[in-house]
Design brief:
The protein is mainly beta and 112 residues long. It has a single domain, classed as Immunoglobulin-like, CATH 2.60.40.10. The chain is built from no helices and eight strands. Strands 3, 4, 6, 7 and 8 form a five-stranded antiparallel β-sheet that branches. The protein has a three-stranded antiparallel β-sheet with strand order 1-2-5, with no helix packed on it. Strand 3 (41-48) and strand 4 form a beta hairpin. It starts with 10 loop residues before the first strand and ends in a 6-residue tail after the last strand.
Length: 112
Amino acid sequence: MICQVSDQPPTNLTAHNTSSTSIQITWNLILPHEKHIATEAYYVTMVRAHNSNDTKQLEAILGACENATFMTLHWTNLRKYTAYRITVAGVTDRGFGKASGEITVLTDEDGN
């Protein structure tokens, strides 16, 4: 079956630093509904927030587990004491759906 792209973004996107070089990101999955929308994966983007010359974007595509209601991603090897802007979007066989609202999180300053 060919699915449509979801017009709903993932909800309850949250993130917090777990060290000076890592961030944990969590969001609620997009639940399937009557329009034949079955999200197959999630597209996570993260970019440094305060460097307008920085065009490098960190990206990940993660498959969703059956019967899960939320997902968690632990991103490591980041820059110390740096703010990152994060969004998440659902992906179907038709492409990318609507992205979540953007959030910003700061890695720790210490040497952990």
